[in-house]
Amino acid sequence: MESHPIPQNVTTFQFHLVGDMTLKQFIYLATGSGLAYFVFIFFVADYPYFAWPLILTAAGLGTAFAFLPINSRPLDYWTAAFLKAIYSPTKRVWKKNNKSYQEDPTFNSRLFTYLAGLQPIQQQPVPPVYNPPHVAKSVTAEAPPLPTPEQLGKTVDLARQAQNLQMKIIQTERTLNQIKTAAQSPTQIPVDYTQQVNTVLSDLQNLVTQASQIKQQIEFVHQPEPTNTLPLPIAPRPKVTVIVPTKAKVTQVALTTFPNVINGIVKDANANYLEGVVVVIYDKEGLPVRALKTNKLGQFTGSTPLPNSIYTVELEKDGFAFDVLQVELTGTTLPPLTITAKGPGVS
To answer: Which of 73, 210, 288, 333 is least enclosed, having the fewest CB within 10 Å?
Structure first.
């Protein structure tokens, strides 16, 4: 059998100046030797204790950079890798819809919450107010009690559980987005994603419920005093239409008999049923709890009831635009929502 030459990467070829010495090795060696010779000429006579260590260091570094590889890589490669590892950022932040998930407000702020409880409350001076002798009262301000070690330990455990649930919720949302993207892509053979979406949404609902329970437990442990600080403003969703559930008419076809199940019919501007419209239902905290898809008759309905709350419904389909709907569930059977597309969507 004839031997074949081993393919080599010719792009990394370096010119050999003398024997196996490349031009880069020669430059490193010449630089170190030149610096050592310069120090020897000008500083050895006057400063021998300072000059000789500098001469040996310069000559040694020049020789090491030229002829001392580590794991088949030159020393300048390891030096550049070390500087890059020191000064380059190694922390990555996942962003979605211009929202950063870098910090968890419950877990990462536990130290500041604890230190804030230790600081004494500075009372502002109150101007004296004249009161009659028979109604005069003394007002004393008592400092809040410090948290006990048991409360601190329980808070840390609950915060760790909340962080784990937050990571699981993010992974579940990522899986739901992947299923949503796959459902929107056209395929030769139609694929039913209902079972996968229901499973993912069921897991997401369980995680959200657990997160709410942990949040209530943390609030119960701390029992913070009410303050006058206003909550951070939440950016409102554009074009939100409030839908008030009305009583079902006799002529209207009911899509479900279970209470708190959002359902409806989607039509275009010409009253034609729209098939393949993706319907995503969000809770009041902005987390997706249901993802549905209309059938040939433009109908969509959930499989399991939702808790009593206010929900936002968003619809998506290529070539059409829809309003963002807001529905309040109160434990009654919701009649089908009739949703009409505005027309071709704006790209």
So the answer is: 73
Contact 201, 311 (CB under 8 A): no
The residue ranges of DSSP E strands in 55-192, in sequence order, are 95-96, 99-100
Distance of alpha carbon 167 from alpha carbon 131, whole angstroms: 58
- Percent of the chain at pLDDT > 90 equals 12
The domain limits of the chain are 12-87, 148-223, 240-340
How buried is 22 (Cβ within 10 angstroms: 0-12 exposed, 13-18 middle, 19+ buried)?
A: middle
3-class state of residue 265 by DSSP: strand
DSSP state of 114: H
Which architecture does CATH list for 240-340? Sandwich (2.60)
DSSP structure class, residue 128: P
* Opening angle at CA 282, ends 281 and 288, nearest 5: 90
Question: Can you state the angle between helices 194-222 and 149-184, rounded to 10 degrees?
Answer: 160
- Between CA 267 and CA 341 the distance in angstroms is 6
CA angle 168, 192, 199 (to 5 degrees): 25
Query: pLDDT of 256-313, one tens digit each?
Result: 888 889 999 999 988 898 999 999 999 988 889 888 999 988 999 888 889 999 999 9
Give the type of residue at 212. Answer: S
CA distance 9 to 255: 66
